[in-house]
Backbone:
């Protein structure tokens, strides 16, 4: 009898807690990617995550590392304090678009401006997912939500915020990229970006952020497959994946494979 071979198992940096996320939500994929990177870099024992207010408010249940809970929008401020007090730790915030781009907009902008040596993982699904699917700062023009039932009217409601484009203009930002996780190829690209962002922090090279264009089947009123198609056809057209800012010295470090830690 052939010996059994394990080809897929839960990363050590994930707990066995049953998920509260809706079926088809990309949060679970992103959690796994972050956990795999933590395992591969061997940093689980010195990593501190910051949970926000939003769908991922219970993220601390899923990651097998130290975690703290921040007030709505204040995750970058808490991460700043933890990193300054414990500079040898790897500190990351995990935030949604309502938390980061609305009430937390000033926090993320000034954390980037100060060049805080922290990492932010930013999930953009274009709605307030936890509270009922209201319009968010990132809701697309014309997109129907519970608080924009006739679609987002940019003349009265303003335009969506493109956070990568905004943060890339800030001098203190070192690594600002946008990815998605709608298929295996994009998941691999996302994982590489998460690894790069953690390596930037571990090398002491400043503020890093990965925006992940995500879905929300429940609040969009779609099946999981329909929501992935919407991401591909609509969301990515408005929020193109790409590298929005990588400082030359950061690019040199990542390209050469040299790690200054």
Residues:
């Amino acid at each position: 009898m052939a010996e059994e071979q394990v080809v897929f198992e839960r990363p050590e940096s994930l707990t066995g807690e049953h998920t509260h996320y809706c079926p088809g939500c990309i949060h679970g994929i992103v959690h796994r990617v972050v956990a795999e990177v933590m395992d591969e870099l061997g940093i689980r024992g010195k990593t501190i995550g910051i949970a926000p207010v939003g769908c991922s408010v219970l993220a601390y249940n899923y990651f097998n590392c130290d975690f703290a809970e921040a007030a709505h929008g204040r995750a970058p401020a808490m991460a700043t304090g933890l990193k300054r007090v414990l500079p040898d730790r790897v500190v990351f915030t995990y935030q949604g678009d309502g938390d980061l781009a609305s009430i937390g907009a000033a926090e993320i902008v000034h954390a980037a401006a100060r060049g805080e040596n922290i990492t932010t993982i930013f999930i953009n699904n274009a709605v307030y997912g936890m509270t009922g699917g209201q319009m968010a700062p990132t809701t697309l023009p014309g997109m129907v939500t519970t608080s924009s039932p006739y679609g987002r009217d940019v003349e009265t409601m303003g335009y969506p915020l493109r956070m990568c484009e905004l943060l890339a203009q800030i001098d203190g930002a070192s690594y600002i990229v946008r990815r998605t996780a709608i298929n295996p190829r994009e998941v691999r690209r996302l994982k590489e970006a998460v690894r790069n962002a953690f390596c930037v922090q571990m090398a002491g090279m400043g503020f890093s952020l990965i925006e992940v264009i995500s879905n929300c089947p429940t609040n969009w009123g779609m099946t999981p497959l329909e929501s992935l198609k919407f991401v591909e056809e609509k969301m990515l057209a408005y929020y193109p994946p790409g590298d929005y800012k990588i400082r030359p010295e950061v690019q040199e470090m990542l390209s050469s494979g040299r790690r200054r830690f």
Summary: The chain has one domain: 27-256. The chain has a mean pLDDT of 95.
